[in-house]
């Protein structure tokens, strides 16, 4: 634990510092110091801070995802080309071509999961904090917890909303004698909210924001899996996590949903249903359609979405190659 | 030592595309032979693992076909790593490679890091030749 604590130190410190700051500000604004609502709002504000910081990462994730969608048909062609060729030379060639394809479209498959990974440390820091401040044996109620003062630790751990403490857990509440129904109901509501927002986000992405080419093949399959696996993760995690963590998780899911909605509405994937809808809205306002040029270019060069991703790189490279060949 | 030219280093297989891998370099020094030529006693610890991976590649890999997005595939990488780096470093490299073999890394050409090993030309492990075929430019 000491080793993990050392790694987590900056995150634990940052999370407790942000929470402590927001709690002080809210108290100053007139909320009751020991009220659970004060801490709940602090956690939600923490989510806002984290998600605003992560916006650049999210932008890169979207770019990578779109690149992945463009690459998918070409990847299938490549696989067909090397089908049944098992000698080391063709295998190596295939992998090299695949790598070149990713590079050309600036796709980094790792980027697609980075925003989730980046939130993990903060998540764990919060999880540990809530698990520990409730215990009387850890000494945190005497020494404080990172940036939280001892008074804040005691206040945080004894605060509640609807009679449910910040460190309460569904499973413990359910197994308690007598069953703590308020814990069970509140956590259930939050788990349902998390699953619903996640499901809606993913469904919307798949039905509206994927180009026709991307709707078939492995990429779509992965997305479909996410649609059903993530809710399962939420349910399994949800019954084991303290209320404070669930507040964080639910709030961050709502943020994701809003962010996704905004992106799909204003900056849809070229060739997707959402883009058609955007162009209809623009036409109603008398504005020129978006992405139309890209579509024309795609018909000519069979390269979907060339305009969006490779504005600097792609056309230039092509021209250069042709010139070299001619000379 | 009239067979001096038949010594092959692991690094002899790392050549740019278009050149032939596996051609003997300069004559090895006594020091290089002492450090890089592993006889059976030094090779022994890695043997069980080498046998296991060989067995895996013969019997189990064919069951699910080619799924690895890297070149060499994870099992080929593992076999070469354990063969040329020994049990400890080889296992560590293999573990790290298997961890990287997931949908989010995208694969690519990823050869085993060069080791100091050296062999008489006729006993170079076959996996090294398999993993480093001559490539066109």
Automatic annotation (TrEMBL), chain A:
Q: What membrane topology does the UniProt entry give?
A: Multi-pass membrane protein
Bias-annotated ranges (Basic and acidic residues): 292-315
Q: Which segments carry the region annotation Disordered? A: 284-327
Which key words are in the record?
Answer: Cell membrane, Chaperone, Membrane, Protein transport, Transmembrane, Transmembrane helix, Transport
- Locations of Basic residues compositional bias? 316-327
Question: Which residue intervals define the domain Membrane insertase YidC/Oxa/ALB C-terminal in the entry?
Answer: 39-264
Subcellular compartments: Cell membrane; Membrane
Keyword DNA-binding: yes or no? no
Grouped into one coarse class, the protein's main location is membrane
**What's one Pfam family the UniProt record gives for this protein?**
60KD_IMP
InterPro entries from the xrefs? YidC/ALB3/OXA1/COX18, YidC/Oxa/ALB_C, YidC_ALB_C
Please give the start and end residues of each transmembrane region: 7-31, 37-59, 110-130, 180-200, 227-249
Record's subunit section: Interacts with the Sec translocase complex via SecD. Specifically interacts with transmembrane segments of nascent integral membrane proteins during membrane integration.
Family to which the UniProt record says this protein belongs: Belongs to the OXA1/ALB3/YidC family. Type 1 subfamily.
Role summary: Required for the insertion and/or proper folding and/or complex formation of integral membrane proteins into the membrane. Involved in integration of membrane proteins that insert both dependently and independently of the Sec translocase complex, as well as at least some lipoproteins. Aids folding of multispanning membrane proteins.
Protein name as it appears in the record: Membrane protein insertase YidC
UniProtKB/TrEMBL annotation, chain B:
- In terms of superkingdom, the source organism counts as Bacteria
- Primary residence: membrane
Checking Pfam families in the record gives: YidD (PF01809)
Q: Which UniProt keywords apply?
A: Cell membrane, Membrane
Protein location: Cell membrane
Q: How does it sit in the membrane?
A: Peripheral membrane protein
Has UniProt tagged this entry with the keyword Cell membrane? yes
The record ties this protein, via InterPro entries, to: Membr_insert_effic_factor_YidD (IPR002696)
NCBIfam families from the entry? membrane protein insertion efficiency factor YidD
Concerning HAMAP family, the annotation shows: UPF0161_YidD
Task: Report the family membership.
Answer: Belongs to the UPF0161 family.
Any idea what job this protein has? Answer: Could be involved in insertion of integral membrane proteins into the membrane.
Q: What is this protein called?
A: Putative membrane protein insertion efficiency factor
């Amino acid at each position: 634990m000491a080793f993990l604590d050392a790694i987590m130190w900056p995150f634990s410190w940052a999370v407790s510092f942000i929470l402590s700051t927001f709690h002080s500000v809210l108290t100053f604004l007139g909320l009751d110091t020991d009220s659970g609502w004060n801490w709940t709002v602090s956690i939600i504000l923490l989510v806002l801070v984290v998600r605003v910081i992560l916006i650049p990462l999210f932008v890169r994730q979207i770019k990578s995802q779109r690149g992945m969608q463009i690459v998918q048909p070409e990847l299938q062609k490549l696989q067909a080309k090397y089908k049944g060729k098992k000698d080391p030379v063709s295998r190596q060639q295939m992998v090299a071509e695949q790598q070149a394809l990713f590079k050309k479209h600036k796709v980094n498959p790792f980027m697609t999961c980075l925003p989730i990974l980046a939130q993990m440390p903060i998540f764990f820091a919060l999880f540990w904090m809530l698990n520990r401040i409730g215990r009387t044996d850890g000494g945190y109620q005497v020494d404080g917890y990172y940036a939280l003062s001892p008074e804040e630790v005691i206040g945080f751990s004894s605060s509640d909303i609807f009679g449910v403490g910040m460190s309460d857990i569904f499973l413990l509440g359910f197994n308690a004698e007598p069953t703590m129904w308020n814990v069970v109901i509140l956590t259930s509501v939050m788990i349902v909210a998390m699953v619903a927002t996640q499901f809606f986000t993913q469904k919307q992405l798949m039905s509206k924001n994927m180009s026709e080419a991307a709707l078939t093949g492995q990429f779509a399959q992965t997305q479909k899996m996410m649609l059903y696996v993530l809710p399962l993760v939420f349910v399994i995690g949800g019954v084991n996590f303290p209320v404070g963590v669930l507040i964080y998780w639910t709030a961050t899911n709502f943020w994701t949903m809003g962010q996704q909605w905004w992106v799909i509405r204003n900056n849809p994937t070229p060739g997707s249903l959402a883009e058609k809808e955007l162009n209809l809205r623009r036409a109603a306002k008398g504005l020129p359609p978006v992405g139309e040029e890209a579509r024309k270019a795609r018909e000519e060069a069979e390269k979907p979405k060339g305009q969006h991703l490779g504005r600097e790189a792609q056309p230039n490279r092509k021209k250069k190659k042709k010139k070299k060949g001619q000379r | 030592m009239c067979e001096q030219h038949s010594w092959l280093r692991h690094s002899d297989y790392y050549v740019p595309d278009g050149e032939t891998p596996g051609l003997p370099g300069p004559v090895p020094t006594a020091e290089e032979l002492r450090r890089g030529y592993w006889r059976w006693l030094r090779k022994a610890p890695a043997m069980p693992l080498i046998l296991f991976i060989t067995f895996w590649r013969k019997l189990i890999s064919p069951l699910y076909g080619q799924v690895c997005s890297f070149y060499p595939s994870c099992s080929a990488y593992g076999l070469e790593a354990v063969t040329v780096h020994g049990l400890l470093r080889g296992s560590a490299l293999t573990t790290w490679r298997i961890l990287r073999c997931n949908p989010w890394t995208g694969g690519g050409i990823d050869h085993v890091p060069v080791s100091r090993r050296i062999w008489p030309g006729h006993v170079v492990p076959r996996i090294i030749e398999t993993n480093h075929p001559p490539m066109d430019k």
